[in-house]
Amino acid sequence: GIANRMPGINWAGRTYPQAKIKPPYIVVAPPYTVPDLTDADGSVIRAHLTYSIDVLATSSSEVDHYLSGLADRLARYNMHLTGQSDLFESSNNTYRISATFDGMVDRRGHTFR
Question: Cβ distance 14 to 30 under 8 Å?
Fold first, then answer.
């Protein structure tokens, strides 16, 4: 989706790649979903979604650049950056930011905060 269309990103997906991918790339974990509002039969009307997204690149400034671009793109859908942690992967000299984004979505697909 959104991450695949970012200029400069070599790969984006829902699990870590099995093949060796050259950074920069983005990994999106499946969302954690908590029902916020249900109807009488238990169907979810509105849910709170939380996404964990890792951005990996070859420098800390590059990681910051891609995270900023991703945050701007997701904000258009009312998904907002709520936390992040920076890491350095010494095994492959890769910088990584693990970021958390969240927002609300209703069963029609409308998002809001």
Answer: yes
